[in-house]
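Q: Could you fold this chain for me?
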Amino acid sequence: MSGRNINAFTTDSAVTPKPQSSFKHSYVEIDSLALIKALKHCKDNYPIPVNGQLLGLDVGDKLEVTNCFPYPQKRDIYNSLSRDKTTTNLSEKELEEKADEEFVKYQDKMTDLLHDIHVDCFAIGWYQTLHFGDVQSKEVIDNLVIYQEAVDKAIMLGFDPMSSTGEISFKAYRASDQLLELYQSNSGDVKNVSSLKGTEIFVEVPIVIKNSILSECFLNQYVLDNPSQNVGVFDILDADHNKQLAHNLDVLSQSLEALAENQEKFIRYQREHTKLTQHHKQMLERRRLENEQGELKGEPMLPMPELDLSALKKVDKPSQLSTIIMSNECANHTRNVSALCFDNIAKMSLLFHRMSAVNKGN
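A: Sure. Below is the predicted structure, expressed as structure tokens.
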């Protein structure tokens, strides 16, 4: 799933993904200042993944993102508490619980402060550093489902800092209606996902970037007053994507290994289940013969044995959702590698024809 490129200073520039399922908002409108704040937070802390709160309003068929604020890192809160003299007697588990409490207090305090200064403080989702090949992780899916149960119109804005040189790539996601129904029908424990496809887990929502009138005036005046600044960005023509290609190949290898391990767990579980089922059938047949002989002797019928699956508890049942996620991740990483190779070939072809034209001219 390759990232799309959006100019952060383009007004009303929309990204339209392939329709996967119906969603409640036709697009998400993001204020350029809020988007830059989120991108800067993710970029400055890379490679450490960070996240933050998205704030805005629900207006008609669009979801407006007008502001955002970063979340503190829980490990920083934990380290701060561990150095505090008043919490030195707390155990590690108590410190983690205390850090979670402080994390929630921070969000509530920020929301109250924004409300006091009359800034939009309605939570409509969150943003986070996210490699698009890993977007369908179990943690992200669980968090988005839980978030949409509390805030029905919530979205998750993912920013991929490794997308490509000279490009900014981000996407907005919502959990699909099929996934929400599956979670609700299983009370949060998703076991039967055989009817769910990998493309039916998330819905990619189109993004429209909106500039304020003052921002438009400033940008137009800046370009007119400084024509030397209005130059092309040539980094996008760089054909050296070795670092990004190596990263994609590395995560593809890891995803394939994880998928193979998950399949091995499934085969082991199936083997144990088949063994117990066959043993139960043998016991049923033995008891049936015993009852037939007892009936001839006038003895009472013995109860039929029940299938005992307690032995299966020793073998972890693999999650079907995890298998779908891993398979989709492998497909996404493969598409990313193909897109990078195609991009490099196109740039090299352009350079080859350009050099050929120069040589002919000489």
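A (continued): The first helix runs from residue 32 to 45.
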